[in-house]
Design brief:
Blueprint (H helix, E strand, L loop, with lengths): L5 H20 L8 H4 L9 H24 L5 E5 L6 H7 L6 E6 L1 H13 L1 H4 L13 E4 L2 E5 L5 H10 L8 E6 L7 H14 L3 E6 L7 H12 L2
Parallel strand pairs: 1-2, 1-5, 2-4, 5-6
Antiparallel strand pairs: 3-4
The structure holds S-adenosylmethionine.
């Protein structure tokens, strides 16, 4: 799917959060923050979709909490291609925040998320030192950092992580939830290799679409192409 336009790739964060909100509303898991990221009514989804999102969200959640527990929260989490994800707020409500939580996405997605956070008290009241943003291209509030980068450009990604105070010596968990598939294998390999070389203690959670040549995968690819 690396040949889809950037606009179509950015739009995938809507689908992810809309499907998560639908599943949350149906009681698959608890997330009292997602409705602030995705306001309004949502069209009915097939139960298979909600079950798939439950497996995806819950498996990542369990791994994240295991990592945080092992490090006694003295660690960093870097969510690459975070979209409108609410994991930071969910961890905060369980008193399980790491010392640094960095989210990275394309500029348009970051601007949209910052506007959403700024407009919704339940979101920004969880961030320390939050003040109304003049610069909508990044947000640095206590342990929370939201920055923009095209991650196919490793130099840009590294610079934005530096601006967020990344510490290469602290245990760091990288999360890519349905993200790497939108770039070429060379570009995603470069990110993984950079993490392996740069960090003394790093872990990687990657949750990805597979079997893109079966009927389901082909329908997904053609839907993305229609959005271009
Ligand atoms: C399917 S969404 C997943 C969002 C989030 N991880 C989740 O599961 O809710 C993919 C996200 O990856 C981001 N993304 C894909 N390629 C990217 C790139 N080269 N640079 C920055 N962000 C990228 C998209 O903008 C989008 O927000």
């Amino acid at each position: 799917m690396s040949d889809c336009t950037d606009a179509a790739i950015q739009a995938t964060c809507n689908d992810a959060s809309v499907c998560k909100k639908y599943a949350v509303d149906k009681g698959y898991w608890m997330d009292r923050f997602i409705s602030y990221m995705v306001p309004g009514r949502i069209q009915r989804k097939q139960p298979e979709i909600s079950r798939g999102y439950y497996a995806r969200t819950n498996s990542i959640w369990l791994l994240l909490k295991r990592f945080l527990t092992r490090c006694s929260c003295t660690c960093q989490i870097v969510s690459l291609g975070a979209g409108l994800d609410t994991t930071y707020w969910r961890l905060g409500s369980e008193n399980m925040l790491p010392i640094r939580y960095i989210e990275v996405d394309f500029l348009d997605v970051v601007v949209r998320k910052i506007r959403c956070i700024s407009a919704k008290v339940p979101l920004h009241s969880c961030l320390s030192d939050f003040s109304t943003q003049d610069d909508e291209s990044c947000l640095h509030c206590g342990s929370y950092h939201l920055v923009s980068a095209d991650m196919r450009n490793l130099g840009e990604l590294e610079e934005k992580l530096k601006q967020s105070g990344i510490d290469y010596s602290v245990p760091t968990l990288f999360l890519t939830e349905c993200v790497l598939i939108y770039m070429s294998p060379e570009k995603s390999n470069a990110i993984i290799q950079w993490v392996a070389e740069k960090f003394s203690d790093a872990a990687f959670i990657n949750y990805e679409q597979i079997h893109m040549n079966d009927t389901f995968g082909q329908v997904m690819i053609s839907n993305l192409k229609v959005q271009q």
